[in-house]
């Protein structure tokens, strides 16, 4: 099995589906190093009544706990939607090496606000973008019907 960006994005999509099943906006994230997932997360803002409980924040916390370090150097975050400003700030401070996201977020995505990541962080957007976007679009279509 080839463990490439698509493989790890599919793992993030599985997390997004967990969020969807829990009536949360379906965004999922995983943090990987050396082809191993160190942290997983999905949106839990409703369940935890916490506006900071984004998928990225939960995955970052799980990965730093697994590593026993506050830094995520030599790690990659895979997330189904472009990180917001808050998550980009947390990723900046974590010194993560790569951020790979699926769908772009033209309203709240970090790229709208300029360079927010650590200068050494490589950003790759658009990986499995249609699959990631379709999950979110479907979620909000079901919300509008009810």
Give the strand tally: 5
- How do the SSEs run, as a string of H and E? HEEHHEHEEH
* Strand order within the widest beta sheet: 2-1-3-4-5
Percent strand: 15-25%
Q: What ranges have pLDDT less than 50 throughout 5 or more consecutive residues?
A: none
Q: Return the structural class.
A: alpha/beta
Please compute the radius of gyration using only Cα atoms.
14 Å
Helix content: 40-55%
Mean pLDDT value: 96
| Major beta sheet summary | 5 strands, mixed
**Alpha-carbon distance between the termini?**
41 Å
Structure description:
The chain has 146 residues and is an alpha/beta fold. Helix content is 42%, strand content 20%. It has five helices and five strands, in the order αββααβαββα. The chain has helices at residues 5-21, 45-48, 55-67, 85-94, 129-145, and strands at residues 28-33, 36-42, 76-81, 98-103, 122-125. It has a five-stranded mixed sheet. Helix 1 (5-21) packs parallel to helix 5 (129-145). It is globular, with a radius of gyration of 14 Å.
Fill in the keyword field for this structure.
single chain, 146 residues, alpha/beta, five-stranded mixed β-sheet, globular
């Amino acid at each position: 099995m080839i463990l490439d960006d698509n493989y790890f994005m599919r793992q993030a999509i599985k997390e997004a589906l967990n969020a969807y099943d829990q009536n949360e906006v379906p965004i999922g994230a995983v943090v990987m190093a050396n082809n191993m997932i160190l942290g997983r997360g999905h949106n839990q803002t409703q369940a935890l009544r916490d506006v900071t409980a984004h998928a990225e924040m939960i995955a970052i916390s799980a990965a730093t706990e697994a590593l026993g370090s506050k830094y995520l150097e030599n790690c990659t975050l895979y997330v189904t939607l472009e990180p917001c400003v808050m998550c980009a700030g947390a990723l900046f401070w974590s010194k993560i090496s790569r951020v790979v996201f699926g769908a772009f977020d033209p309203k709240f995505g970090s790229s709208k606000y300029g360079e927010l990541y650590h200068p050494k962080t490589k950003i790759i957007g658009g990986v499995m973008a249609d699959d990631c976007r379709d999950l979110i679009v479907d979620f909000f279509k079901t919300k509008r019907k009810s």
